[in-house]
Structures are given as C-alpha cells and as structure tokens.
Fold:
Amino acid sequence: MTGAVPLLSDHDRLEARRLIESEGLRFETDADDIVGLYEGECLVATGSRAGYVLKMLAIAPSQQGGEALGELVTLLIQRGMDAGHETFFVYTRPDNVTTFERLNFRLLVTHSMAALLEIGPGIREYLDNHRALMRSGKNGAIVVNGNPFTLGHLHLAETAARRVEHLYLFVVREDRSVFPFDARFRLAREATAHLSGVTVLETSRYAVSAGTFPSYFLRRLDDAALAQMQLDVRLFGSVLAPPFSVRARFVGDEPYCATTAAYNRTMEEVLGEYGIEWTQIPRLAHGDAAISASRVREFLGRGDLDRVASWVPPATMAYLRSPEGRNVIRRLAGAGEGR
Amino acid sequence: MQIRRKATAGTSQSSDLMVVVEPSDTLSIEIESTVKKQYEHLIRVRIQEPLARLGVTAARIRVNDRGALDYAIDARVEAALRRAAEE
Structure:
C-alpha cells in the first residue's frame, strides 16, 4: 500500500463515492478535497474535507484497524493547513470515538447518535483567547446569527440582561450568511453598546457552525439535523457555558422557521441536564408581525428600505446605507433566500 | 535560526508525529500525545534538543505524537524548523 493521494479525476471520485456509499455513508458534494489510498489498482480507503470538517471517511473492510485512517487524516490535515485551517472537526458514530482518540483527536461531545471530535488548538485556544471576558456569577447567554441585527435581537438582549448578572451575546462565527461575520459582529456590538451588563463575543466553531449544526444553514430538518442539534446544544452545555458561568440561555420564540423552532425545543429538553435554565421570550412585534431577520432580508430583497427602518436599530440602518451594505442588498435582490 | 513562516513535518501515523512550527514572539511548545500521561516530560526534552542545537528562541511549536521514538522526534522537529526558517 502506498501513501494517500489526492483524488482529482472524475473517475477516481466516482470510485470514492462507491466506497463511501458501500460503507453506509451519504456522499455529499461540498468537499473541498478528497483523498484516497490505493492497493494496486484498487481504491481501499477515502476521506474528504469540507472547510475545517473532515468527512466521508470510508475504509474497505480489508484495511480496517490498520494504518489507513492515519494515512488519510495526515494528508487531509496537511492539505487543510495549506488551505489555511488550524483545527479540524470530525463528526462520527459514538463507537468510533476511541479510534479517533488514538490519532490524538479530542472528544468535544457525544450522545447516543453521534460524536464530535477535534484536532488542533481548537477549544483550548478559543477559551484562552476569551479568558479576560469570563466572569463568575449567575450569567446568561444568547446565541444569534444576526443576519442582520434587528430590534428583535435587541429586545431579546435587553430582556435577558435584566434577568442575569451578566449576559454573553454570542454571534455565530460561521461565514455562510448573506451579511458577512464582521458586519454581523460589529452591528451586534454597536446595537448593544448602551447595555452595561452585556458582552458580545464570537462562537468560533462551537455553536451553530458548519461543524456542529450544518443543517441550520441548509434549513433542513431531518434525522441528521436533529442529531446535530443535540450535539450543538450539548456542546454548549458542557464546553461553552461553564467557563463563562452561564446558567441561563435565552431564545426568542420562533414562529417562522421549523429548523430553528426544533432547535429551541432541543434546548428546552436538554439544557436542564447541564444545570442551565432555558427561557423563551416572546418576539417583539411591530404592528401584527413578529420582527425577524429573515423578513428583514425579504424586505431588502424587494427594495423596501422604509419597512426595514422600523425593524432594525440605527446601527444596522447605517450599515445598510453604506457601500458595503448596499452590496449585500444587491445580493439579496439578485439571489434567492439564504441564511 | 529565525522562524519566518508556518511549516509542518511528519505524519499522523502510528510511531510518528506531526510537527507544526510557526512564528511567535516567545517560545512555546504544545504537546498532544497518545502517551502524554507517561511521557510528556520526556517528549518535551526531546523537542528542546533540536531547538537548542539550531538556536531557535522564538516560535510556536505544536506536536501531535503517536508514540514516536526519540530520533523520530528529533528529525521531524528539525525538518519542520528548517522549513519554517526557509532554508
């Protein structure tokens, strides 16, 4: 057996797909990189990378338990580092956890259906970088995408901040939304600057990310999505919440999106296990419509900026009038709906 | 030796290690190892040898070890350092 090699031709990738599907995995088309391992002419192992997530790792039965996985992971990580990533996730079945731990992956979270592990500086570096923001006490948290930040988000933050000693407003780091992360983060910060007990910080890969909850960005609600929600919420409860002394998580009720509504229900069911109180706060309404970022994007797509002005804080409005904001509006007008 | 860029050496294979070296103002060594509990202190000493030999005083070194022997650690660290110094 020679070392792992990138699979570049359509023929090689078709073979990889056959191997992936014969191992009972779903072939997905979003890979940035596919590598494989040959014995003679025969592909005996394959693995892929989409961004920082390693996936579709499939090894023929004859090669299992050997060095095939180490070969695949070595090449995927080397090439992933060349593409600028430092930390890599793998999402797998709970019975594979020790196999990955033997490669020095660190278990982040596991439950009956799935497990999430990482390799690289990862969560340790994230927590080290945020050490200065950690406070003791009975603190609360909100996780928002803020695409873009609305008066609804602001209302949620204000209401939650009154009920806890300190509120952490986590902004989803994943850059898969029409408003870029930098803008979403800045607007969340500007809109809440007047609230003294609120700290805005980013989630990195550790909440609602391509690694923990990719279905969120696809608006997909199937068994895979439900398993991801479990992992995402349990990761929050066990890894993200304790260092910030978060004892309460607040969400806005979700009348529009079934995926987010299911995510809220998962939180309600699971967070208690981690000693975290879950509170749903009724959405702020304007007239008879509940304010939501997805409706704001709809209005923007139709060019209805006047309607938007009564739904978003001044910071968001100023951004929408900037050249950068006008670019986003153009994208909304041209393309379909996105997260 | 001056560390100018990020570089790697080695693999995630059994009995090998993967080393990542990148520029930093200080010297730091982070070790992940399947035998960390028993041998972390010895692995650290092994990593320090090529650092001292090549005169590296500022770098961030990350090591992912799967039970490599001393000479493998030495060779992989030196290779990563030389690549990172753009020799």
Notes: The interface with chain A takes residues 6, 8, 11-14, 18, 20, 30, 32-34, 62, 64-66 of chain B (CB under 8 Å). Residues 15 and 66 of chain B are 5 Å apart (CA to CA). The longest strand of chain B covers residues 27-33.
